[in-house]
Every structure is written in C-alpha cells, then in structure tokens.
Design a protein that fits this description.
Blueprint (H helix, E strand, L loop, with lengths): L1 E8 L3 H12 L4 E4 L14 E3 L15 E4 L2 E5 L7 E4 H4 L4 E4 L1 H14 L3 E3 L4 E7 L2 E9 L2 E12 L6 H6 L11 E10 L7 E5 L8 E6 L4 E9 L8 H11 L2 H4 L2 E11 L8 E2 L2 E3 L15 H21 L4 H29 L4 H13 L7 H11 L12
Parallel strand pairs: 1-2, 1-11, 2-8, 5-13, 11-18
Antiparallel strand pairs: 3-7, 4-7, 5-6, 9-10, 10-11, 12-15, 12-16, 13-14, 14-15, 17-18
Helix pairs in contact: 1-3, 1-7, 7-8
C-alpha cells in the first residue's frame, strides 16, 4: 500500500497535464500507464493546433514536429476549389503534424520534471472506494499487486474509460452516429503539399472524411473516418480509403509503411464525468471535437483544470460531489457550447448529398471571413445564399 495526494490513470496528454500541474501545485502525484511505452501504439491522425500551447507552457519542439503547416484545405466531393483555412482566418488553430509517440513522451517528461512519479506497464485493475468516495486503485506494478490510496483520482484512460465505468459512471456510447471507425496509412513516396492538411468530404467517407496530414517531403498520414451507422461491414472503412487512394495518382504511387486502426467518439460532452474523489479528463469526458475528431488540446486543458480542482479539494479536505462539480462547470463553460454546435453540424453534414456538400464548400470558399467558425460560416450562408438556409436551418 502506498499513499499519494493525486493518482492519475493514463499517460496521454490529458493525464500528463493533470499530473504535471498537480505536482506543480505541490501535491504528491503518481501517474500510471498500462503500456510499457508511453505514446505507443499510436492511435491518432497526429495533427494538433498551436493555439493552446503557450498558455500551458508547451514549447514546440523539432523533436516531435514532423511538419509545420500554414493551414488546412477542405474539399467537397467534386474536389473543386477548397475552403482554405490559414492563420489569417483561423489564427493559431493552424499548427503541426507531429510524431505522437514522441509528443506524449515529452508531455510525460514535463510531468516528471515537476516532481510527479511515473509508472509504466502498470495497469489499474480495480477501484478502491471508501465511504462512497473513490480513494485509489489496485494496480499491477513490477509483477506485484499494489494498492495506491489517493485523496483524488483523475482518470485519463480514453473514451472507453474503464476506470470511470468501474467507479460507477456510465461510459457506453449508444448512438452509432457518435462513433467513428478509422484507419490510417503512413505513406511514403506521395505527392502531398507540405504546407496544408487536406480534408475530403462526401460519399467517399460517409458521414466522415478522408484526411491527408503531411509529415515532410513525400510522406503523409492518409486516413479515413466513417460513422459506424453508415457501415455495412467492418471492411467498408478500408475499402473506402483504398478506393480513394487508387483514384488519386499522387497517392496511388506511394507505399504504406505503417497502419493504425481505432475508434473515435464524436459525441456531445458527457453529462456527468465526476464522482466524489474522481475526475475524468480528455477523451474520457468526451472532449473530442465532434467535427474534427481532434482531442489533444482539449485533453491538455481539461487536465490542468482537474489539477486545479484537485488542489482546492485537498486544501479544503472536501471531496464531495459539490466540490467535484467545480471541475464539471469549468469544463462545460470551456467546451460544451462549441461541442454542441459542432455535434449538430456533424449530424447535419453527415446527411447532406454530394451535390449539396459541393454547393456548401463552393459557397464558403467564395466568402471572405476574418474568423472561421461554424457560426461564422452559417451567418455567411444566411446572408449571401438564403436558398441554402432551409437545408441547414437546424444549425442556424
């Protein structure tokens, strides 16, 4: 048996953030990771914005940056003129294509530098509860069972969040529209543009999209996400991606050197993601953006919020649900409105025909906007192309 102030389950960006800032607050902190190698295997498209980094003391590092992009391009089914998002209209939302395993290791190193203990190959096996409060976990570490008692537990164990489920929080996503099945190839010898990440919409990826994230000259992550409700069998996703590559000579000539698969939640923010003594961060709290599928930045921000509330709870010796609700309020104030809007947009875009998607992309690509957001896009459509309003009235 060992005692800590804070126990963090999972060493992804959310867990590393929670551990880093908990340790900075002077709390005795342990972060555990079930895998022997933090960041591996990679289950990520590896794109990340730069907007949040300076606020949280994360310095861009050539060690984990494969490519710094100028912006993103979004193509309709006909692949005519794309919507182009650059620093001029998207600000610091543009960013980097990274080596995710190296990035995760550096985020964990930042936590360790602040004083957090880090254990790898140390899965949580069960929840320890005392008087209705989550107060630790039984862990397998170095071949032994160890009971870690902690004043606060922060779970950063992915959108399935086994630990949250064991503790009593429902974690199953019932709506098939809220899970994306993904496959990605790391390809060499391709003709991608190193200045842009590219996204392709339409029936080539039903209720999802194909992405190309450049990783330097002649190399790129080429992937696809398809809503599982649009799939007939488990091979559909691979077939969609292979067909797209075959029809694009600049990628058909390439060679695959790595393949990853996985699922991504694209749901609303969870209604409840705390219990007395327990806070869920990042993907476990469903903070993945429903439109982009991105979650690195959101996980890191929520991890810092969890550390702040953990400090407050420990100082006040108050681990009640009311205290935990402070964290829920912080997270929902930051993310909930945008996520709800993007969730509705995701639902609507997934139902548009290729013809209307082309029309929508053409409209947006012609309108000059100083800020790119779902709301700004809808205002532009409403102002200039009122005939499209009915098709998108739920969003407006």
């Amino acid at each position: 048996m060992q005692n800590y102030d804070v126990l963090v389950i999972g060493a992804g960006p959310g867990g590393s953030s929670a551990a880093r800032f908990s340790a900075r607050h002077g709390l005795k902190t342990l972060m555990i990771e079930k895998r022997p190698d933090i960041g591996s295997p990679v289950r990520c498209g590896e794109g990340v914005s730069r907007a949040w980094m300076s606020d949280y003391g994360v310095k861009p590092n050539v060690h984990w940056i494969s490519d710094e992009v100028k912006g993103a391009r979004i193509y309709g089914p006909s692949e005519r003129r794309p919507i182009t998002l650059t620093a001029e209209n998207a600000g610091n939302e543009v960013g980097f294509v990274i080596e995710r395993d190296k990035f995760d290791k550096e985020m964990a190193a930042l936590a360790a530098e602040e004083g957090a203990d880090v254990w790898v190959k140390s899965p949580a096996l069960s929840v320890i509860k005392e008087d209705g409060k989550v107060s630790g976990a039984r862990i397998r570490h170095n071949g032994q069972m160890v009971d870690i008692h902690a004043k606060m537990v922060i779970a950063a164990d992915g959108f399935e969040s086994e630990f949250g489920r064991w503790a009593g929080l429902k974690s199953i996503i019932l709506a098939k529209n809220d899970i994306i099945s993904c496959i990605e190839y790391r390809m060499i010898g391709v003709d991608s543009d190193v200045d842009y990440t590219d996204f392709y919409l339409g029936s080539i990826a039903p209720a999802g999209y194909i992405w190309v994230f450049p990783k330097g000259e002649k190399e790129a992550n080429v992937g696809i996400g398809v809503t599982i409700s649009a799939m007939n069998d488990r091979w559909d996703v691979r077939n969609y991606l292979d067909n797209w590559i075959k029809n694009h000579p600049g990628y058909a000539k390439g060679r695959t050197i790595q393949q990853i698969t996985g699922g991504v939640s694209v749901s609303k923010v969870r209604d409840k993601f705390t219990l007395p003594g327990l806070l869920l961060v990042g993907d476990a709290a469903r903070l993945i953006d429903p439109i982009t599928g991105g979650g690195i930045a959101n996980a890191y921000v929520s991890g810092s919020y969890a550390a702040d509330v953990a400090k407050q709870a420990i100082e006040a010796n108050d681990f009640s649900q009311e205290m935990m609700n402070r964290y829920e309020k912080l997270v929902k104030n930051k993310f909930q409105r945008k996520h709800l809007r993007n969730w509705i947009a995701k639902e609507k875009l997934g139902k548009l025909s290729d013809e209307n998607l082309d029309k929508l992309v053409d409209i947006i690509s012609e309108v000059k906007m100083t800020e790119i957001s779902v709301e700004e896009i809808l205002k532009a459509i409403q102002a200039k192309y009122p005939e499209m309003v009915k098709e998108l009235e739920e969003l407006i």
